Automatic annotation (TrEMBL):
The ATP-dependent DNA ligase family profile domain, residue ranges: 377-495
EC number: 6.5.1.1
Protein's name in the database: DNA ligase (ATP)
Record keyword Glycoprotein present: no
Residue ranges, compositional bias (Basic and acidic residues): 575-592
NCBIfam families in UniProt: LigD_PE_dom, ligD_pol, NHEJ_ligase_lig, NHEJ_ligase_prk, PRK05972.1
Catalytic activities: ATP + (deoxyribonucleotide)n-3'-hydroxyl + 5'-phospho-(deoxyribonucleotide)m = (deoxyribonucleotide)n+m + AMP + diphosphate
Residue ranges, annotated region (Disordered): 1-35, 234-253, 575-608
InterPro entries: DNA_ligase_ATP-dep_C (IPR012309), DNA_ligase_ATP-dep_cent (IPR012310), LigD_ligase_dom (IPR014146), LigD_PE_domain (IPR014144), LigD_pol_dom (IPR014145), NA-bd_OB-fold (IPR012340), NHEJ_ligase_prk (IPR014143), NHEJ_LigD (IPR052171)
Biased composition range(s): Basic residues: 1-15
Encoding gene per record: ligD
The organism's taxonomic lineage, starting at the top: Bacteria, Pseudomonadati, Acidobacteriota, Terriglobia, Terriglobales
Superkingdom of the organism of origin: Bacteria
One BP annotation, GO: DNA recombination
Entry keyword annotation includes Nucleotide-binding: yes
Amino acid sequence: MKQQSRKPPKRKSNHAVHTAARAATRSKNKPLARYQSMRDFGVTPEPKGAAGKRSNAGALSFVVQKHAASHLHYDFRLEWQGVLKSWAIAKGPSYYPGDKRLAVEVEDHPLDYGGFEGIIPQGQYGGGTVMLWDRGTWEPLGDAARQLREGNLKFRLQGEKLKGCWALVRMKGKFAGRSKPSWLLIKEHDETERGDDAPAIVDEAPLSVVSGRDMQQIAEAQDAVWNAKGAQTQSSAAAHRANAPKQASPTVRLPREMAATLKRLPSEALPRFVPPQLATLVSEPGAGENRVYEIKLDGYRIQARVDKKADPPVQLLTRTGLDWTRRMRPRVDALLQLPVRAALLDGELVVLDEKGTTSFAKLQAALKDGSRHALTYFAFDLLHLDGHNLRGEPLLIRKKMLSHLLQDAAAGSAVRLSEHVKGNGAEIFQKACELGAEGVVSKLAQGFYHSGRSRDWCKLKCYLEQELVIGGYTLPSNGTYGVGALLLGYYDAGKLIYAGRTGTGFTRATHRRMREQLETIRRKTAPFAKTEKDARRGAIWVQPQLVAQVSFASWTADGLVRQAAFKGLREDKPAKTVRREGGQMPEPEGKAAKKHRAKSTTVRSEVRLSHRDKVLDEDSGLTKEALADYYASVAPFMLPHIQGRAVSIVRCPAGSDLSCFFQKHNNHTLPGEIESIEIASRKTGKVEPFLTITSANDLLVLAQANVLEIHAWGSTRDSLEKPDRLTIDLDPDDAIDWKTLAGAAAEVRKRLQRAGLKSFLKSTGGKGLHVVAPIEPEHEWPEVKEFAHRLVLEMEKKNPDLYLTRMTKAARKGKIYLDYLRNERGATAIAPFSPRARPGAPVALPLRWSELKSAERPIFRVMDFDGWRKRLKADPWSGFLGLRQSLRLHESVRRSRGRR
C-alpha cells in the first residue's frame, strides 16, 4: 500500500481533516516523550529516536522483537504516523486462528527501534536480552486510523516469518479504561493459517532474522546489533559495568561466638574449585535423630566463588568446575552484595514456578532463551569464608554462618538460603511430596564436608530420576520433523549399558531442537555394549555425548526404565560419568541402628509379570505391563488410603470387556503372598480372611492377577468397628448434566461444613462423585450411617425433584441418588487412584473443589497418565490423613446408642 502524500490534497473530507488534526496534535505533544522519559540513554544501548522518520517510502514496516525482561514476551510493533505502535504479547503470535493471544498496548517506540537487537542492562526499564525475531511490511485492510480508534485493526503482514491476514481487537468490559489497554492478536482465516496441532511458529523459527542467533548467543555475545543505517551502539558489557551495583561491606560481622570459631579455623587461600559432596540415592528416610532435612531442588548444582580482589570478582562453577558465570549475570550482582572479602558457597541454581516449586524444564528454557531473571540460587553450604577453611566444621556450624551471611537477602532475592528442618524423616518426606517437591536430602548434622558421594548425605525422591546417556533415537511415526524416542544408557565398567527409551516429555521446541543436535553426531553402529532386537528396530545411532535427565516409574528386572519421560539435557555432566543410581538405605544412627535394618524396596524385584502385552482394556489399549507401571507410579499416593484396611478387588482375567469377578476373601489364589485381616461375620460369627494391601509390591501382585479395581473399607484393622472416614456417594442418572452434579457435591460439602467437618472430593471413575470427610474413629458404624442418612434425607426433603435416597432404580430417572450406605459395616468405596473395569480404564481420582467449576466433567484414564502425572505433585487431598475432626451426633442418635 502506498503511503499518503505529505502534500495536502485540494479537498479534504471530514475524516481526512480529523486525521490530519490528530497527526498534528501527536507531533505537537511529542509522541516519544513517554518512551524517552523511561530510559537513561547514557546507559542503555536503545535508540533515543525521533518521530516522523519513515523506514522507506513505499510501505509501512513492522517488527517483532523477542524480549527476555521481567517476563519473556514478544514485542509486536507496527509503523504508524512516524512511530512504532507497540504491543507486548506473552506467548508470541500464533498461526492458529483459535489462539487469541493477549497483547498489552505499551508506549510508542521510535522507528529506529525496529533495528535493535542486543542487551538492555539490568536496572534499566525492560532490562534483558532483545532479539529481532521478525521484520517486514504491513498493509492496513481498511481505514487504519478509524480501526485503531474503534479497537478493531485488520491488516496483512509480509514478513520473514509472519504472513497473511491478522487482526488486533481491543478488549472491552473490565479490560477497558486501563492505563495499558489490552488487545487480542488473532490470525484471520486465509491460506496461511495453521491447525491446532501444527508446530508453533515461535518454536519452529526461534532464531534472529538479522543475526541467526538464539537468545543465549545474543546474551553471551555482550554486544548490540544495530540494524538501522549501520550504526553501532556501546557494548552491553560496558553498559553493565557502568551500571554495576556497589559492593557491600567487604567483611562479614559475625556474632562473637561465630567470630571466635572462624578465627581458630585453619587458614587457606580461596580454592579455585572444590569437588562437591554428593548424596547417595536411598529408598527410605534414614532413622535416627542426628539428621537434618532439606527440600531437594530440581536444578543445576553450582559453586559460587566470591573473591572481591580478583577479576572477575564472582565465578559460578558447575559440579565439574565449568565456568557458567556469563550465563547468570543477575546472580553475580547479588553475590557481590554479600558482606565478605572471599567466600565459597555450595548450592543449586533453579527456576521457581508459580507455586514456588522448582522446575528443571523451565530452568533449561530460561538458560536457552535468555530469560535469566527467573533464575534463583539457593545456597545450602559454606566451604570457605575470608581466608578460612570451613569444610572440617560440622554441617550445622557451616549452615549457621551461611545463614548469617544471607540474613539480609530479601524474600525475592536472586540468592537465598536453603533452609533445613529437623524431625521425623518419613513425615517430612511425605509432606515434601504433597507440596510438589522433587524429594528431600537428609544430612548428618555433625558431618564434615567431604568431596564425593557418601551416606553422610542421602537423597530420597518423590519420583525416580536418573541421568542417562543418549545413544540413539527413532523418528516420529507421524512423519513430522523431530524425535520419536531417545535410546538411553549408562556406563558400567567402561561399557555403555542399554537402559530403555523415552518418547514423552518433549515440547514442540525441544522436539525439533533435539533432532537438530542429534543429526550432527550420527554414527553407523550402536554405541551400546548390547541391544535387544526391539531396541534396534528403527534406531538411528549417535555418538554417546549428550546426557538426558529422565523421570520414570521404576526399574524393571531386566534393567530398563519404565514410563520414562524426558526432562531436559544435562549440560553440566560429562557422559562418561553417568552411572546407574540405586536406592539404598542410609545407615541408621544411635539406638535406631540396633533395631532397624534396611530391606530392598525395589518394587519389581519380587514380581515377575507374565504375558506383559496382554490387553486388559480394548478401548484404550491398556496392557498388563502398563497397568503394573501405573500401580508402581501411584503407589506412594494410593497406599496411605488402603493400607491396613480390608479391600475388595475386581479381577478381569480376560479383560474388562469380558467376564470380571469380585473378590474380597483371601483364598490364596493370587500370584503372591497377600496378607489377610481376620473379620468375624456379624450374622454367623464365623471369622473370615479379608484381603489387605500392605506394600507397592502387593499392587504389582494385583496387576499380575489382572485386577482393575480396588475398593476399601471405611475403617482400619486397628479399629474395625469404628470408621475413620464418612463417604457420601453421588450417583447421577444419565440425564443429569455435569453442572447439576457439581452443584450437588458443593451442597454436600456445605452441609458437612455446617456440621463442623472438612471434606474432600473424588471422582469415582464413572458418572459420580464421592464427598469424603475424615473423622476420628470414636463412633460405631450404625451411628455414622445414621448421621449420613440424616444429612441426605434433609437434601431430598429440600429438593425431591433432584435428590433420591432410596436404591430403587426405577425412581432414579432424572435424579441424583445420594448413597449413604457406604457408611455401614462391610461396605466399601472405590479407592483413590484405582482404575475402573470400564471401557477406557478410567481412574477414581482426588479432585480439587475448584474443579467443580470446570465446563466439563474431569475424566482421567490410566493410559493418559503421562498427561496428568503432574497432579501427583500437588495432591488435592493434602492434609486428609492428618486431619482430626469429631462427628457431632444428633441427639436422637445419641439416645439410641444409650439404649443399646
